[in-house]
Protein backbone atom coordinates (compact mmCIF):
# COMPACT_ATOMS: atom_id res chain seq x y z
CA UNK A 1 0.00 0.00 0.00
CA UNK A 2 2.39 2.66 -1.26
CA UNK A 3 0.13 5.10 -3.05
CA UNK A 4 0.64 7.88 -0.51
CA UNK A 5 4.31 7.97 -1.40
CA UNK A 6 4.26 7.02 -5.07
CA UNK A 7 1.51 9.13 -6.54
CA UNK A 8 3.90 12.01 -6.96
CA UNK A 9 7.46 11.05 -6.18
CA UNK A 10 8.27 11.72 -2.56
CA UNK A 11 11.72 13.28 -2.56
CA UNK A 12 12.21 13.40 1.21
CA UNK A 13 15.80 12.26 1.74
CA UNK A 14 16.88 9.59 4.17
CA UNK A 15 20.10 7.86 5.11
CA UNK A 16 19.81 5.50 2.13
CA UNK A 17 18.37 7.88 -0.47
CA UNK A 18 20.15 11.22 -0.40
CA UNK A 19 19.14 14.54 -1.90
CA UNK A 20 21.75 16.00 -4.24
CA UNK A 21 22.22 19.56 -3.04
CA UNK A 22 24.61 22.11 -4.50
CA UNK A 23 27.11 21.39 -1.73
CA UNK A 24 26.95 17.59 -2.01
CA UNK A 25 24.70 14.80 -0.76
CA UNK A 26 22.14 15.61 1.90
CA UNK A 27 21.14 12.74 4.20
CA UNK A 28 18.33 12.96 6.73
CA UNK A 29 18.47 10.75 9.80
CA UNK A 30 15.25 10.28 11.71
CA UNK A 31 15.45 10.52 15.48
CA UNK A 32 12.05 9.47 16.85
CA UNK A 33 11.22 11.84 19.69
CA UNK A 34 14.52 13.66 19.06
CA UNK A 35 16.18 11.07 21.31
CA UNK A 36 19.88 10.44 20.81
CA UNK A 37 22.79 9.31 22.97
CA UNK A 38 25.60 11.80 23.44
CA UNK A 39 28.19 9.46 21.95
CA UNK A 40 26.06 8.93 18.85
CA UNK A 41 25.73 12.67 18.30
CA UNK A 42 29.51 13.06 18.58
CA UNK A 43 30.05 10.18 16.13
CA UNK A 44 27.79 11.85 13.56
CA UNK A 45 29.62 15.15 14.00
CA UNK A 46 32.95 13.35 13.45
CA UNK A 47 31.55 11.72 10.33
CA UNK A 48 30.36 15.07 8.96
CA UNK A 49 33.74 16.60 9.71
CA UNK A 50 35.41 13.85 7.66
CA UNK A 51 33.42 14.99 4.61
CA UNK A 52 35.54 18.13 4.38
CA UNK A 53 34.67 21.81 4.64
CA UNK A 54 31.14 21.26 3.29
CA UNK A 55 30.35 18.56 5.82
CA UNK A 56 27.93 19.52 8.59
CA UNK A 57 25.36 18.17 11.01
CA UNK A 58 22.12 20.15 11.00
CA UNK A 59 19.10 20.04 13.30
CA UNK A 60 15.76 20.06 11.46
CA UNK A 61 12.40 21.59 12.29
CA UNK A 62 11.09 18.13 13.24
CA UNK A 63 13.88 17.33 15.67
CA UNK A 64 15.74 15.13 13.19
CA UNK A 65 19.32 15.46 11.94
CA UNK A 66 20.74 16.12 8.49
CA UNK A 67 24.24 15.47 7.24
CA UNK A 68 25.30 17.89 4.50
CA UNK A 69 28.14 17.74 2.03
CA UNK A 70 28.28 13.94 1.72
CA UNK A 71 30.77 13.21 -1.10
CA UNK A 72 29.40 11.18 -4.02
CA UNK A 73 31.62 8.19 -3.28
CA UNK A 74 30.71 7.94 0.39
CA UNK A 75 26.94 7.38 0.39
CA UNK A 76 27.16 3.68 1.23
CA UNK A 77 29.78 4.34 3.91
CA UNK A 78 27.39 6.87 5.44
CA UNK A 79 24.54 4.35 5.45
CA UNK A 80 26.78 1.70 7.04
CA UNK A 81 27.93 4.08 9.76
CA UNK A 82 24.39 5.26 10.52
CA UNK A 83 23.32 1.60 10.82
CA UNK A 84 26.28 0.83 13.11
CA UNK A 85 25.18 3.67 15.34
CA UNK A 86 21.73 2.10 15.69
CA UNK A 87 19.96 4.86 13.78
CA UNK A 88 18.75 2.71 10.90
CA UNK A 89 16.64 -0.05 12.45
CA UNK A 90 14.57 -0.54 9.29
CA UNK A 91 15.73 0.03 5.72
CA UNK A 92 12.12 -0.03 4.49
CA UNK A 93 10.78 2.40 7.08
CA UNK A 94 13.69 4.77 7.59
CA UNK A 95 11.97 7.78 5.98
CA UNK A 96 8.62 7.28 7.74
CA UNK A 97 9.94 7.23 11.34
CA UNK A 98 8.76 10.82 11.81
CA UNK A 99 7.79 11.06 15.47
CA UNK A 100 7.99 14.36 17.28
CA UNK A 101 7.61 14.38 21.07
CA UNK A 102 7.46 17.18 23.64
CA UNK A 103 11.16 17.69 24.39
CA UNK A 104 10.63 19.19 27.85
CA UNK A 105 8.24 16.52 29.11
CA UNK A 106 8.90 15.81 32.76
CA UNK A 107 11.54 18.55 32.96
CA UNK A 108 9.52 21.73 33.52
CA UNK A 109 6.82 20.72 35.95
CA UNK A 110 4.16 19.93 33.36
CA UNK A 111 4.36 16.18 33.37
CA UNK A 112 0.57 15.77 33.43
CA UNK A 113 0.86 12.02 33.22
CA UNK A 114 3.53 12.19 30.52
CA UNK A 115 6.84 12.59 32.31
CA UNK A 116 10.17 12.18 30.54
CA UNK A 117 10.47 8.42 30.91
CA UNK A 118 6.78 7.87 30.11
CA UNK A 119 6.98 9.85 26.90
CA UNK A 120 10.29 8.25 25.90
CA UNK A 121 8.66 4.84 26.37
CA UNK A 122 5.74 5.80 24.16
CA UNK A 123 8.11 7.08 21.47
CA UNK A 124 10.00 3.79 21.44
CA UNK A 125 6.82 1.69 21.41
CA UNK A 126 5.38 3.75 18.54
CA UNK A 127 8.62 3.47 16.56
CA UNK A 128 8.71 -0.31 17.06
CA UNK A 129 5.07 -0.69 16.02
CA UNK A 130 5.59 1.52 12.98
CA UNK A 131 8.61 -0.42 11.76
CA UNK A 132 6.88 -3.75 12.36
CA UNK A 133 4.04 -3.01 9.95
CA UNK A 134 5.09 -3.50 6.30
CA UNK A 135 2.14 -1.45 5.00
CA UNK A 136 3.24 1.62 6.95
CA UNK A 137 6.42 1.81 4.87
CA UNK A 138 4.04 3.32 2.29
CA UNK A 139 3.57 6.51 4.32
CA UNK A 140 5.17 9.59 2.85
CA UNK A 141 8.27 11.05 4.42
CA UNK A 142 6.10 14.00 5.46
CA UNK A 143 3.50 12.14 7.53
CA UNK A 144 4.11 13.15 11.15
CA UNK A 145 3.26 11.46 14.44
CA UNK A 146 3.11 13.68 17.52
CA UNK A 147 3.30 12.86 21.24
CA UNK A 148 2.66 15.88 23.40
CA UNK A 149 2.83 16.63 27.09
CA UNK A 150 0.33 18.70 29.04
CA UNK A 151 2.02 21.91 27.93
CA UNK A 152 1.00 21.40 24.30
CA UNK A 153 4.61 21.98 23.29
CA UNK A 154 4.39 20.35 19.87
CA UNK A 155 0.81 21.29 18.95
CA UNK A 156 2.06 23.96 16.53
CA UNK A 157 3.75 21.30 14.43
CA UNK A 158 0.32 20.04 13.36
CA UNK A 159 1.06 16.32 13.33
CA UNK A 160 -1.12 13.98 11.29
CA UNK A 161 -1.70 11.49 14.11
CA UNK A 162 -1.07 12.78 17.59
CA UNK A 163 -1.79 12.28 21.28
CA UNK A 164 -2.14 14.73 24.17
CA UNK A 165 -2.39 13.64 27.82
CA UNK A 166 -5.63 14.25 29.71
CA UNK A 167 -6.18 13.49 33.40
CA UNK A 168 -5.98 10.17 35.20
CA UNK A 169 -3.88 8.33 32.63
CA UNK A 170 -6.22 9.10 29.75
CA UNK A 171 -5.06 10.54 26.42
CA UNK A 172 -6.78 12.47 23.68
CA UNK A 173 -5.88 11.07 20.26
CA UNK A 174 -6.32 12.76 16.90
CA UNK A 175 -7.39 12.93 14.21
CA UNK A 176 -10.15 10.66 15.59
CA UNK A 177 -10.80 13.01 18.52
CA UNK A 178 -11.32 10.28 21.10
CA UNK A 179 -10.11 9.67 24.66
CA UNK A 180 -8.25 6.42 25.31
CA UNK A 181 -6.29 4.82 28.15
CA UNK A 182 -2.49 5.14 28.11
CA UNK A 183 -1.83 1.55 26.97
CA UNK A 184 -4.01 2.14 23.90
CA UNK A 185 -2.25 5.28 22.64
CA UNK A 186 0.27 3.57 20.35
CA UNK A 187 -2.32 1.26 18.80
CA UNK A 188 -4.63 4.18 18.18
CA UNK A 189 -1.89 6.19 16.43
CA UNK A 190 -0.88 3.27 14.24
CA UNK A 191 -4.53 2.65 13.33
CA UNK A 192 -4.78 6.29 12.29
CA UNK A 193 -1.79 5.90 9.99
CA UNK A 194 -3.27 2.76 8.41
CA UNK A 195 -6.60 4.50 7.99
CA UNK A 196 -4.86 7.42 6.32
CA UNK A 197 -3.14 5.09 3.84
CA UNK A 198 -6.49 3.53 2.91
CA UNK A 199 -8.09 6.95 2.50
CA UNK A 200 -5.12 8.16 0.41
CA UNK A 201 -5.41 5.16 -1.91
CA UNK A 202 -9.16 5.73 -2.33
CA UNK A 203 -8.63 9.43 -3.03
CA UNK A 204 -5.81 8.72 -5.49
CA UNK A 205 -8.00 6.27 -7.42
CA UNK A 206 -10.83 8.75 -7.79
CA UNK A 207 -8.76 11.91 -8.39
CA UNK A 208 -7.33 13.27 -11.63
CA UNK A 209 -3.75 12.11 -12.28
CA UNK A 210 -2.42 15.65 -11.90
CA UNK A 211 -4.20 16.14 -8.58
CA UNK A 212 -2.45 17.37 -5.44
CA UNK A 213 -0.23 14.70 -3.88
CA UNK A 214 -1.70 13.16 -0.75
CA UNK A 215 1.17 13.06 1.67
CA UNK A 216 -0.57 14.18 4.84
CA UNK A 217 -4.04 13.95 6.39
CA UNK A 218 -4.81 17.53 5.46
CA UNK A 219 -4.14 16.67 1.79
CA UNK A 220 -7.18 14.36 1.70
CA UNK A 221 -10.01 15.84 -0.38
CA UNK A 222 -12.17 16.47 2.69
CA UNK A 223 -9.25 17.57 4.87
CA UNK A 224 -9.45 14.35 6.89
CA UNK A 225 -13.02 14.69 8.22
CA UNK A 226 -14.07 11.32 6.82
CA UNK A 227 -10.97 9.64 8.18
CA UNK A 228 -11.65 11.06 11.65
CA UNK A 229 -15.22 9.74 11.60
CA UNK A 230 -14.08 6.31 10.41
CA UNK A 231 -11.43 6.13 13.15
CA UNK A 232 -13.94 7.12 15.86
CA UNK A 233 -16.05 4.13 14.85
CA UNK A 234 -19.03 5.33 16.88
CA UNK A 235 -17.08 6.35 19.97
CA UNK A 236 -17.98 9.77 21.42
CA UNK A 237 -16.01 12.68 20.04
CA UNK A 238 -13.99 14.51 22.69
CA UNK A 239 -12.91 18.15 22.34
CA UNK A 240 -9.25 18.58 21.65
CA UNK A 241 -7.34 19.97 24.66
CA UNK A 242 -6.05 23.46 23.91
CA UNK A 243 -3.25 24.11 26.39
CA UNK A 244 -1.48 27.46 26.14
CA UNK A 245 1.76 27.33 24.15
CA UNK A 246 4.36 25.52 26.20
CA UNK A 247 7.61 27.04 27.43
CA UNK A 248 10.75 26.46 25.42
CA UNK A 249 13.40 27.06 28.07
CA UNK A 250 16.99 27.88 27.15
CA UNK A 251 19.81 27.74 29.68
CA UNK A 252 19.73 25.89 32.99
CA UNK A 253 16.69 25.22 35.13
CA UNK A 254 15.68 23.05 38.04
CA UNK A 255 13.71 19.93 37.25
CA UNK A 256 10.56 19.08 39.24
CA UNK A 257 12.52 16.29 40.97
CA UNK A 258 15.18 18.75 42.21
CA UNK A 259 17.94 18.01 39.70
CA UNK A 260 18.92 20.27 36.85
CA UNK A 261 18.23 20.20 33.12
CA UNK A 262 19.52 22.51 30.40
CA UNK A 263 19.04 23.43 26.77
CA UNK A 264 21.42 25.10 24.33
CA UNK A 265 20.48 26.76 21.06
CA UNK A 266 22.38 25.64 17.97
CA UNK A 267 22.68 28.78 15.80
CA UNK A 268 20.74 28.14 12.56
CA UNK A 269 20.76 24.47 13.47
CA UNK A 270 24.35 23.77 12.40
CA UNK A 271 26.11 21.66 15.02
CA UNK A 272 29.89 21.42 15.13
CA UNK A 273 31.88 18.56 16.58
CA UNK A 274 32.86 20.81 19.47
CA UNK A 275 29.18 21.51 20.15
CA UNK A 276 28.27 17.83 20.09
CA UNK A 277 31.14 16.98 22.43
CA UNK A 278 30.13 19.72 24.84
CA UNK A 279 26.53 18.50 25.00
CA UNK A 280 27.56 14.88 25.52
CA UNK A 281 29.95 15.90 28.29
CA UNK A 282 27.33 18.05 30.02
CA UNK A 283 25.03 15.15 30.79
CA UNK A 284 24.96 13.35 34.10
CA UNK A 285 26.59 9.93 34.08
CA UNK A 286 29.90 8.15 34.18
CA UNK A 287 29.98 7.67 30.42
CA UNK A 288 29.31 10.68 28.13
CA UNK A 289 28.64 8.27 25.26
CA UNK A 290 25.56 6.97 27.06
CA UNK A 291 24.18 10.36 28.08
CA UNK A 292 20.65 10.82 26.82
CA UNK A 293 19.96 14.02 24.82
CA UNK A 294 16.88 15.36 23.08
CA UNK A 295 16.99 17.29 19.83
CA UNK A 296 14.09 19.78 19.75
CA UNK A 297 12.16 21.04 16.69
CA UNK A 298 13.44 24.53 17.56
CA UNK A 299 17.13 24.02 16.79
CA UNK A 300 18.18 23.34 20.33
CA UNK A 301 19.38 20.32 22.28
CA UNK A 302 18.12 19.42 25.74
CA UNK A 303 20.32 17.81 28.36
CA UNK A 304 17.67 16.25 30.64
CA UNK A 305 20.07 15.48 33.50
CA UNK A 306 22.86 17.97 33.93
CA UNK A 307 26.14 17.12 35.64
CA UNK A 308 27.40 20.63 36.50
CA UNK A 309 24.80 23.43 36.28
CA UNK A 310 27.30 26.25 36.85
CA UNK A 311 29.51 25.38 33.89
CA UNK A 312 26.84 24.79 31.23
CA UNK A 313 26.30 28.30 29.86
CA UNK A 314 30.00 29.26 29.52
CA UNK A 315 30.87 25.82 28.12
CA UNK A 316 28.10 26.16 25.53
CA UNK A 317 29.43 29.58 24.50
CA UNK A 318 32.97 28.23 24.06
CA UNK A 319 31.58 25.45 21.85
CA UNK A 320 29.71 27.85 19.54
CA UNK A 321 26.29 27.19 21.10
CA UNK A 322 24.12 29.71 22.93
CA UNK A 323 22.48 28.94 26.26
CA UNK A 324 21.55 32.50 27.21
CA UNK A 325 17.80 32.57 27.98
CA UNK A 326 17.32 35.83 26.01
CA UNK A 327 19.35 34.74 22.98
CA UNK A 328 18.15 36.08 19.63
CA UNK A 329 19.01 32.69 18.14
CA UNK A 330 15.75 31.39 19.59
CA UNK A 331 13.93 33.75 17.22
CA UNK A 332 15.82 33.35 13.93
CA UNK A 333 15.65 30.58 11.33
CA UNK A 334 17.01 30.35 7.79
CA UNK A 335 16.90 28.04 4.81
CA UNK A 336 20.08 26.49 3.38
CA UNK A 337 20.83 29.45 1.08
CA UNK A 338 24.16 29.71 -0.70
CA UNK A 339 26.26 27.64 -1.17
CA UNK A 340 24.07 24.67 -0.23
CA UNK A 341 21.17 25.42 -2.56
CA UNK A 342 21.51 26.12 -6.27
CA UNK A 343 18.37 28.30 -6.22
CA UNK A 344 19.66 30.65 -3.54
CA UNK A 345 20.19 34.30 -4.36
CA UNK A 346 22.10 35.05 -1.14
CA UNK A 347 24.10 33.46 1.64
CA UNK A 348 21.19 33.90 4.01
CA UNK A 349 22.84 32.09 6.89
CA UNK A 350 25.81 34.42 6.88
CA UNK A 351 23.55 37.45 6.53
CA UNK A 352 21.31 36.24 9.38
CA UNK A 353 24.37 35.61 11.55
CA UNK A 354 25.63 39.14 10.84
CA UNK A 355 22.24 40.54 11.84
CA UNK A 356 22.15 38.58 15.11
CA UNK A 357 25.73 39.63 15.90
CA UNK A 358 24.52 43.22 15.53
CA UNK A 359 21.58 42.54 17.87
CA UNK A 360 18.90 42.44 15.15
CA UNK A 361 16.57 39.86 13.61
CA UNK A 362 16.27 41.58 10.23
CA UNK A 363 18.51 43.37 7.71
CA UNK A 364 19.76 46.77 8.85
CA UNK A 365 17.48 48.67 6.46
CA UNK A 366 14.46 47.08 8.09
CA UNK A 367 15.47 47.75 11.68
CA UNK A 368 12.08 49.03 12.74
CA UNK A 369 11.03 47.90 16.24
CA UNK A 370 9.55 44.42 16.25
CA UNK A 371 6.92 43.31 18.76
CA UNK A 372 8.23 41.35 21.76
CA UNK A 373 8.83 37.73 20.87
CA UNK A 374 8.69 38.37 17.11
CA UNK A 375 10.52 35.81 15.03
CA UNK A 376 12.24 36.07 11.66
CA UNK A 377 12.85 33.58 8.87
CA UNK A 378 15.48 34.22 6.19
CA UNK A 379 15.05 32.58 2.76
CA UNK A 380 17.36 32.49 -0.23
CA UNK A 381 14.48 32.60 -2.73
CA UNK A 382 10.71 32.84 -2.90
CA UNK A 383 10.16 29.15 -2.09
CA UNK A 384 10.89 30.04 1.54
CA UNK A 385 11.85 26.52 2.62
CA UNK A 386 11.84 25.72 6.31
CA UNK A 387 9.63 28.58 7.37
CA UNK A 388 8.37 28.14 10.92
CA UNK A 389 4.81 27.60 12.05
CA UNK A 390 2.97 30.62 13.41
CA UNK A 391 3.67 34.26 12.69
CA UNK A 392 7.10 35.59 11.82
CA UNK A 393 8.82 38.31 9.82
CA UNK A 394 9.60 36.98 6.36
CA UNK A 395 12.97 37.97 4.87
CA UNK A 396 13.29 36.77 1.28
CA UNK A 397 16.29 37.27 -1.01
CA UNK A 398 15.46 38.57 -4.46
CA UNK A 399 17.60 39.65 -7.41
CA UNK A 400 17.74 43.20 -6.05
CA UNK A 401 18.18 42.51 -2.37
CA UNK A 402 15.98 41.35 0.48
CA UNK A 403 12.25 41.84 0.79
CA UNK A 404 11.03 42.04 4.37
CA UNK A 405 7.40 41.59 5.25
CA UNK A 406 5.05 39.95 7.70
CA UNK A 407 4.13 36.38 6.75
CA UNK A 408 1.12 36.30 4.48
CA UNK A 409 1.24 40.06 3.87
CA UNK A 410 2.35 42.05 0.87
CA UNK A 411 5.98 43.23 1.03
CA UNK A 412 6.25 46.51 2.87
CA UNK A 413 9.90 47.23 2.40
CA UNK A 414 12.44 46.41 -0.25
CA UNK A 415 16.05 47.31 -0.56
CA UNK A 416 19.46 46.20 -1.69
CA UNK A 417 21.47 45.11 1.29
S1 LIG B 1 14.15 28.83 0.02
FE1 LIG B 1 15.09 28.79 -2.02
S2 LIG B 1 17.26 29.12 -1.58
FE2 LIG B 1 16.33 28.48 0.34
S3 LIG B 1 16.62 26.26 0.41
FE3 LIG B 1 14.58 26.67 -0.48
S4 LIG B 1 14.92 26.63 -2.70
FE4 LIG B 1 16.94 26.90 -1.72
Topology at a glance:
Elements: H1 3-6, E1 19-21, E2 24-29, E3 35-37, H2 38-50, E4 56-59, E5 65-70, H3 75-84, E6 99-101, H4 116-131, E7 145-147, E8 161-165, E9 170-174, E10 178-181, H5 185-206, H6 225-232, E11 251-254, E12 260-265, E13 270-271, H7 273-282, E14 292-295, E15 300-303, H8 309-318, E16 332-334, H9 348-357, E17 376-379, E18 393-398, E19 401-406, E20 413-415
Parallel strand pairs: 6-7, 7-8, 16-17, 17-18
Antiparallel strand pairs: 1-2, 2-5, 3-14, 4-5, 4-13, 8-9, 9-10, 11-12, 12-15, 14-15, 18-19, 19-20
Structural class, from helix and strand content? alpha+beta
Give the ordered list of helices and strands: HEEEHEEHEHEEEEHHEEEHEEHEHEEEE
Q: What's the main sheet like?
A: 5 strands, antiparallel
Which term fits the overall shape? globular
Number of domains: 3
User: Helical stretch count?
Assistant: 9
What Rg, in angstroms, do the CA atoms define? 21 Å
Q: Low-confidence segments, ≥5 residues, pLDDT <50?
A: 408-417
Strand order in the sheet with the most strands: 1-2-5-4-13
Approximate strand percentage:
15-25%
Number of DSSP-assigned strands: 20
Pfam families: NIR_SIR_ferr (PF03460)
Domain Nitrite/Sulfite reductase ferredoxin-like: 23-84
Protein name: Nitrite/sulfite reductase hemoprotein beta-component ferrodoxin domain protein
Organism: Pseudofrankia inefficax (strain DSM 45817 / CECT 9037 / DDB 130130 / EuI1c)
